[in-house]
Amino acid sequence: MMKLEQIGQYRWKLPIGSIPGMRVPGIVYADDRMVKTIQSDGSLNQLANAATLPGIESAAIAMPDIHFGYGLPIGGILACNSRTGIISPGGVGYDINCGVRMIRTPLSISDVRPYIERLVDRLYQTIPCGVGSDGKIRLDGREIRKVMQKGSAWAVEAGYGVEKDTIFCESSGRLDDAGCDDVSDRAIVRGRDQLGTLGSGNHFIEIQAVHTIFDNNAAELMGLEENQVTIMIHSGSRGLGHQVCTDYLQLMVRNLSKHHIVVPDRQLACAPIDSADGRRYWGAMKAAANFAWANRQCLTHWVREALQEIFGTAVSMDSMGLLYDVAHNIVKIETHEVNGKQLSLAVHRKGATRAFGSHHPDIPERYRTIGQPVLIPGDMGTQSFILTGTETAMRETFGSACHGAGRRLSRKAALKLAKNRSIEQELRQQGIYAKAEGRFTLGEEMPEAYKDIADVIEVIRATGIGKPVAVMIPLGVLKG
Amino acid sequence: MICPYGKIREIGTTADVGLVIESGTLELLFATAGWGMTQLITMPHSDWTKEKHRIDLRADDTDMLMVDWLSELLFIFSSEALLFSTYDIVINENRLQAQLQGNRVIGSGIRFRYDLKGVTWHNLVIRRVRNVYQARILFDV
């Protein structure tokens, strides 16, 4: 078992030397109870492995939702010097730009409760979800290139949203200079029929209501009030992104020796950012990230249509504005201060959310005085949170926070626990209407499979990495 | 249906799923891995014989060959909705040649289990213990 040194109430250090070759320590944000789980699930080994990678700056960082993944642990942040460091597909994961967005509505909890089943059922009919589902949008080779170049803006231009939507996305829903030529034909084949699909597993569309507001000023700027209904969407780059990761892992594993790189885990195979292999992955990753933003934008459009169908003139397109959209599996080139110097870094966030503090130029003007909105979904039976990014996050975590509650149980263990129970009925008794395409999805995604989101948020709040604005409770959920 | 090529045990990590498999030969181990991955998507049937497919892969080592092999099968499923239940495999010096039989499964009323995103290299183990070939493979879900 790897030993952690406590360096603060919720801060722990994984010292250099925990495994051979560590260039920097690991820093873990967690409470005492979380640490016990973290120490036993293998995720610290994964964090230590990441700390060996060339060009890593300051520390390999883990958020309180850290759990065992592959390569970099889920909840992990890896920042590498963009001049001398590496870029790693395994530091991002297969679902490139998996992320979350939140849509405001003018409806209240009492407006929606009587119609919740109708709304979720309508979303189920409208939005393709589950394994192997194809979307309603057919893209030829030319059009899919446009999606990969333009991201969210492609969807808006195609009629799936309004121009304002792109303003309220991280990076305006588009990373410039996407390398469409670096995306393989295979990735395009996997993606061409999947734009506007939810996916499966933990991807969802959830109808929520604002339960409590903690920060009135921020909530007002975000257009949130208590009892207001909001919609949260969680999805990613679908098969296109999965194949980009597969392709570049294959390439980078083969070329490790060419780049004189030794990794403790081939899942962390990487290449210097400033190499042909590194530049090609960076370009393809941006293309896949843009595809994901376009995907979430199309889903947003159909959610709005479903709301209009059911609530008629009570909801206009203008009244269902996008609050914000965040990516939580991505690598981005950002400038951060390290040891008093401003450095350009490739910040890999795998199951971690960007959380920039106030006045950062990358935050939409509307939110610039309060910090970037940070959307943190919980499990489908409890709560989700919205926070703002902080200066502490900028100083300590490369402007990053957690991405969710974090799984506690494997899918297999969750199914075992769900045996002879109806999770659907249990949720219904709590006033939550849940529908899933997958046969076992509700069991695998049952609330007990996740850590308590309130504990995770408390660590984020107490360490100053994020500032809670509001908590939402679920009314209805569609799972893939 | 029981895998005719070897033993399969499904394992779960906190976020993902995996297989621990064993067989009598390297070729059967690769067939078992193919069957096992299919089983994670949906249970294979012996009457899946409508489609025939050939695969020819080369890799630098056995681990790479395994990841490439399963990634190839996953791509075929993702792009053509084709899953296999019959695997005839020859492996020679890290070259794999396979003749496969299977069915297209989308639209067939089959309900699926896991949406596998990728075949990972993480903690990948392939080894021979006396006369038994064993492997441990994790998949991203």
Short description:
Helices cover 32% and strands 25% of the residues of chain A. Chain A is built from 16 helices and 19 strands. In chain B, the strands form two sheets. In chain B, strands 1, 2, 6, 7 and 8 form a five-stranded antiparallel β-sheet that branches.
Explain how this protein is built.
The complex is a heterodimer of chains A (480) and B (141). Chain A is of the alpha+beta class and 480 residues long. Helices cover 32% and strands 25% of the residues of chain A. Chain A has one domain: tRNA-splicing ligase RtcB (Alpha-Beta Complex). Chain A has helices at residues 32-40, 43-50, 109-112, 116-126, 141-150, 152-157, 163-167, 185-191, 216-222, 238-254, 276-311, 391-396, 411-418, 423-429, 441-444, 453-463, and strands spanning 5-6, 11-14, 26-29, 60-70, 72-81, 86-87, 99-108, 204-213, 228-235, 271-272, 322-327, 329-338, 341-350, 353-354, 373-376, 384-389, 400-401, 433-436, 466-479. In chain A, helix 4 (116-126) packs across helix 11 and helix 10 (238-254) packs antiparallel against helix 11. The mean pLDDT of chain A is 96. Chain B has 141 residues and is of the alpha+beta class. Chain B has one domain (8-140): Archease domain (Archease, Possible Chaperone, Chain: A, domain 1), CATH 3.55.10.10. Chain B is built from 2 helices and 8 strands. In chain B, the strands form 2 sheets. In chain B, strands 1, 2, 6, 7 and 8 form a 5-stranded antiparallel β-sheet that branches. In chain B, strand 7 (125-129) and strand 8 (132-140) form a beta hairpin. The interface between A and B is large, with 46 and 39 residues.
Topology:
The complex is a heterodimer of chains A (480) and B (141).
Chain A: E1 5-6, E2 11-14, E3 26-29, H1 32-40, H2 43-50, E4 60-70, E5 72-81, E6 86-87, E7 99-108, H3 109-112, H4 116-126, H5 141-150, H6 152-157, H7 163-167, H8 185-191, E8 204-213, H9 216-222, E9 228-235, H10 238-254, E10 271-272, H11 276-311, E11 322-327, E12 329-338, E13 341-350, E14 353-354, E15 373-376, E16 384-389, H12 391-396, E17 400-401, H13 411-418, H14 423-429, E18 433-436, H15 441-444, H16 453-463, E19 466-479
Parallel strand pairs in A: 3-4, 18-19
Antiparallel strand pairs in A: 1-2, 2-3, 4-5, 5-13, 6-10, 7-9, 7-11, 8-9, 8-19, 12-13, 14-17, 15-16, 16-19
Chain B: E1 7-12, E2 17-23, H1 26-41, E3 51-58, H2 62-80, E4 82-92, E5 95-104, E6 118-119, E7 125-129, E8 132-140
Antiparallel strand pairs in B: 1-2, 2-8, 3-5, 4-5, 6-8, 7-8
